[in-house]
Amino acid sequence: MTLLAIETSCDETSVAVVRDGRVLASLVSSQIKLHAEYGGVVPELAAREHLRNLLPVAEAALDAAKISRDELDAIAATQGPGLPNALLVGLKAAQAMAFVLRKPFFGINHHEAHLYSPWISGAPPVADFGAFEPNVSLIVSGGHTMLVHVESELKHRVLGATIDDAAGECFDKVAKLIGLPYPGGPEIDRLASQGNAKAYDFPRPMLRDAGDDFSFSGLKTSARYFLRDHPEVLESAKALRDLCASVQAAIVEVLVTKAVRAARRQQVNCITASGGVTCNSALRQELATACRRENLKLRLAERSLCTDNAAMIGVLAERKLAARVEESSLDAEIMPGWALA
Questions:
Q1: Other C-beta atoms within 10 Å of 71: how many?
Q2: What domains can you pick out in the chain, each with its CATH number?
């Protein structure tokens, strides 16, 4: 079967073509330069860019996959969560295409798609569900941080989530306090690679809490007060690198510790991680180290599949189609706050 998928939940316009688990094409039109001027994503500008870019990106994806519209067996799009106006562009375009082509349509939960992105790898990317096994999945991005127990394909249960700021939001807001350019998370990662992670002692929120929830607002506030009391740090390149490394170490320790603890509690032998923050080099390294120490398997989403992408939307939709999951209504509306169950 061949499926076209659309992802427009935030500031990247992405279209992918998937056939029998193989990603034939996955294109992304990024808006980073547009939003950098404002230090963050401007929802109305994001929606306008999606309107401008979606059709050209879709046509380019079909051309790259060497697939015609008539060869498509189904259409999928992100239905939520995300920015309402941004979601609306992709969802309604996909529904219109499904209506015109008389093909099944699947509205996909963005977070559920992240659960399966670690099982997509290679060049060209192929979904390796033959290797699938029960796991605890860490989804960590700018808007969300959660732990999910994936018992089997298409069967999962959320163990915990952030009660305030997400890890990615903490990275970005601390970067803004420091004066780093947008997006701030990658900038902190770059500077931290040359810093001393033990230079400054920042709190590890909820690290010793028995549950699986997260909280990063306190760490962000701690960084704000630290900079208020030590403004000289911003005048020293070395101190700035140490600051980035210390903040990053606090976030990473919480994420890794809670993921490993949850895996042990759920008695699974595999941890997966996805979402934009999974691009962070320290997080990838510390997860790998912890899993080796605890004799756990680790599957990390490839960096190109960590951030918003239509490939994971298409792969999940294809699995749902194969499993005979009921298709979505062509009248279905966006679900900006669609929480993963």
A1: 13
A2: 2-125+305-322 (3.30.420.40), 133-301 (3.30.420.40)
